[in-house]
Write a structure and sequence with these properties.
The complex is a heterodimer of chains A (405) and B (395). Chain A has 405 residues and is α/β, with parallel strands linked by helices. Chain A contains eleven helices and 22 strands. The termini of chain A are far apart. In chain B, the strands form five sheets. Chain B has an eight-stranded mixed sheet, with helices on both faces. In chain B, strands 16-17-15-18-20-19 form a six-stranded antiparallel sheet. Chain B has a two-stranded antiparallel sheet with strand order 4-5. The chains are: A alpha/beta (405), B alpha/beta (395).
């Protein structure tokens, strides 16, 4: 059996016919070197957004199972077109849906988790010498329903397949040439990272970095697959995501932000169980809670306040969900959209409070009011007003990255 | 009360406003106590657009990949319609061919339904009020995705109706079946009833109302098809086994882009005729208006669809390679004009009237069956020929 390479191309890399043809040439070159090649593709350009808009024009709260049926069409268009382009270059290729590739998930629609990959068909076709092109982002539940893996789910498809195929490596292509110390589109001084550990990459993705999906990194870590994050049309630099023993990395690796967060504040009486009700509603809607704080506001321990920071980017029908919450909890619930999350990612961050104190001092000097703080040993997160975000990134990046070298 | 199978064509689901209206239409029937199975096509021009993109990539599209590409169109519509139904409180689920196990042959782009497991859909109907099915598609035993050819959603719908032994309602932007294409001939008459055999001749002759395979299935299982307009309450037409009033000629239809193939001076050996048509069949190609004349040698001519010319050349060269001096002529730019009527069987004088109507038009070729007469004319004479026949037979 030939050595296998799994490649993944994101939406901007397959945005039009010309790009698909260029990718076909890239894939053909790797195939001609003798590798077995599996290619995972996303939907073309803005296709997914267009489909979401269509769904919202027929329903303010679209049924999740049907959303998956709808959205999975996007990747299928790309994969069949890429196969046609490969065949046009005399490279034998076949496209397979998530279901045909044996990507089995749970039935948490629109945000499913990969449970198992049975890539029998993929292996069969590879054994016949074919390049296998797989629709990313999608799987099939044990009920035979089409599922999707949530934002960035094509990365997860690629890494999960790479693990199941025992691939040599997994190459993730996008419009950036790897991982930077902060968003290079915002901060010119952002530094390219030639390598980063699984753990830190996971933290960066969870905190909002868009280069690669956090679950994908988790899969790679478990299977020991090295991820190569590269730019599709601008080759040269790359970032390797791999095991790096903790002795080698110290201090701060990156500054990451996320804009699409909202803070929900619930004032409630403990006896009324409203806190649990809200928690259950959030869970049913599959809203991920990034941060949760509960405080007692009266000594008798009856009146309390809970604050949930959630990311609403991937929630279909968010507006209608929000108005249902307002109807249910009336003036007891508040939504604060004027916040962004800004995180420092690194190693041993909470060993002492130096980084926290220094950062807060900086914010204070610049009059940036901090609305919340949370820490893990790899991450230090601040909630700050949206209009102060860019300023905050510049300050932290200068202090912890630029001035350190 | 009972189960109703419906089909909505591409123009009926062209945008989300229309999809919402169809959801209302389905909801009404559900509230009357019915269970609905709705088969949908791709939205508006989606299929053509997808084919356009594929053609930008390659001139030689792999049939399997084309099916993988095109079937996304129906999946989008089915999901959106189901979303719209759930939004107005109707329990609905969209199902694709894989989930319903609609088994077909492995002839990509033109597969035929072999079997469908009706228990599947019946089980879903106990849990849901409306099942939305992606039309036009099937799967092979190996799990490959296939399509049933242009207009195949009709066939999906009728096959489902036949399997459940219920009648089928087919909705489009045309309010029924007319004696001639009402978009070209506004005075065409709407037919209350059309016999299966008439409809079969009309579908294969170019009337775009129904996919012929769907009529074959309806005939085989004796399922009535109702053809009506999606957004108006105007009464449509029924496709049935037989009906009482039988005018001699019921309808007229035409088909453009016809090419006449003439193979002349073949040796007088009839096995060659067999070989030719066998090779044509093996390539899955269709021929019509066949004429075989023998005098000094054998002359064979037949008509094909212009777009398939390239495939025919391939098929013919395989059988005729040992006869290099043959003269094969391809003449394009023809239209086929046909009149159809089950009443022709029992009336005389139809042919006389037919040729009388066409006496000023150069007719290249005429073929007949029990219930139809077709002629081949240059495309520029098509409208004139149709007008004359419409007038003569009062269509």
């Amino acid at each position: 059996m030939n050595k296998i390479i799994v490649q993944k191309y994101g939406g901007s890399s397959v945005a039009d016919v010309e790009k698909i043809k260029k990718i076909a040439a890239m894939v053909a070159a790797v195939r001609k070197e003798g590798f077995g090649v599996a290619v995972v593709v996303s939907a073309m350009g803005k296709t997914t957004n267009t489909l979401i808009e269509l769904a919202h024009s027929v329903s303010s709260d679209p049924a999740k199972r049907e959303m998956d049926m709808l959205l999975s069409a996007g990747e299928r268009i790309t994969m069949s077109l890429l196969c046609m382009a490969l065949n046009d270059l005399d490279i034998e290729a076949i496209s397979l849906t998530g279901s045909q590739s044996g990507i089995i998930t749970n039935d948490r629609h629109t945000d499913a988790r990969v449970i198992e990959v049975r890539p029998i068909r993929v292996q069969d076709e590879m054994a016949k010498g074919k390049v296998v092109v797989i629709g990313g982002f999608q799987g099939v539940s044990y009920k035979r329903d089409v599922t999707t893996l949530g934002r960035g789910g094509s990365d997860t498809s690629a890494v999960a397949l790479a693990a199941a195929l025992n691939a040599e490596r997994c190459e993730i292509y996008s419009d950036v040439d790897g991982v930077y110390t902060t968003d290079p589109a915002l901060i010119e001084e952002a530094k390219h990272l030639p390598e980063i550990s699984y753990q830190q990459m996971q933290e960066m993705s969870t905190a909002g970095a868009k280069v690669i999906n956090a679950q994908a990194v988790q899969f790679a870590k478990e299977a020991g697959i090295i991820i190569y994050a590269r730019s599709t049309f601008n080759p040269g630099k790359e970032t390797l995501i791999k095991t790096i023993s903790s002795g080698e990395t110290k201090g701060v690796t990156g500054i990451v932000h996320e804009n699409d967060v909202v803070r929900i504040i619930l004032s409630y009486n403990k006896e009324d169980k409203e806190f649990y009700e809200l928690l259950k509603l959030l869970e049913a809607k599959q809203v991920g809670i990034k941060e949760l704080n509960v405080t007692e506001t009266e000594k008798e321990n009856i009146k309390s306040k809970a604050s949930f920071v959630v990311s609403f980017k991937n929630i279909y029908g968010w507006e209608s969900f929000k108005s249902n919450l307002e109807k249910r909890f009336k003036d007891k619930i508040e939504f604060d959209y004027d916040l962004s999350a800004l995180s420092i990612i690194g190693e041993g961050l909470n060993r002492d409070n130096e980084i926290l104190l220094e950062s807060l001092k900086l914010f204070d000097i610049e009059n940036i009011g901090i609305a919340g703080i949370s820490t893990t040993s790899y991450r230090l997160s601040f909630l700050l007003p949206k209009n102060k975000l860019e300023n905050g990134i510049i300050l932290l990046h200068k202090k912890w990255i630029e001035d350190k070298i | 009360m009972g189960t109703i199978v419906q089909k909505y064509g591409g123009s009926s689901v062209a945008d989300t406003t229309k999809i919402k209206k169809i959801a209302e239409k389905i909801a009404k029937r559900v509230k009357e106590g019915n269970k609905l199975v709705a088969v949908v096509s791709a939205m508006g021009k989606t299929t053509d657009n997808l084919i356009g993109i594929a053609k930008e990539i390659t001139n030689d599209i792999v049939p399997r990949e084309l099916d993988m590409l095109l079937t996304t169109g129906e999946q989008v519509t089915a999901a959106l319609l189901s979303i719209a139904l759930n939004d107005i409180g109707i329990k609905s689920k969209s199902m694709n061919a894989f989930q319903l196990e609609i088994l077909t042959t492995d002839d990509f782009n033109a597969a035929r339904i072999k079997n469908l497991k009706v228990e599947k859909i019946e089980k879903f109907l106990t849990e849901f009020d409306a099942i939305i099915v992606t039309g036009f598609q099937g799967i092979t035993e190996e799990g490959e995705i296939t399509t049933l050819g242009r207009g195949g959603s009709d066939t999906s719908a009728v096959a489902l109706a036949a399997a459940m032994n219920v009648n089928c309602e087919i909705y489009s932007d045309v309010a029924g079946i007319f004696s001639a294409d009402p978009r070209v001939h506004p005075a065409a008459k709407k037919l209350k009833n059309v016999a299966y055999d008439e409809m079969l001749e009309m579908s294969s002759l170019g009337a775009k109302v129904l996919h012929s395979r769907s009529v074959e299935i309806a005939k085989k299982f004796n399922i009535n098809i109702y053809c009506g307009s999606t957004f108006s309450d105007e009464e449509g037409s029924y496709v049935v086994d037989n009906y009482l009033e039988e005018p001699s000629v019921t309808g007229i239809s035409s088909m453009d882009k016809q090419t006449q193939v003439t193979i002349s001076k073949l040796p007088l050996d009839y096995t060659i005729t067999h070989d030719i048509f066998e090779s044509v069949a093996k390539h899955g190609l269709n021929v019509d208006m066949i004429s075989v004349i023998s005098n000094s040698g054998l002359n064979i001519s037949f008509t094909i669809i212009e777009d398939e010319k390239h495939n025919f050349q391939k098929a013919l060269s395989e059988v005729l390679q040992d006869l290099p001096k043959l003269n094969i002529k391809y003449q394009s730019g023809y239209s086929k004009v046909s009149i159809v009527g089950i009443g022709m069987k029992s009336s005389s004088g139809v042919a006389a009237k037919y040729f009388n109507a066409l006496k000023n038009i150069p007719v290249k070729l005429v073929t007949t069956s029990e219930i139809k007469i077709s002629c081949l004319v240059e495309e520029k004479y098509k409208n004139e020929a149709m007008q004359a026949l419409i007038k003569m037979f009062g269509l």
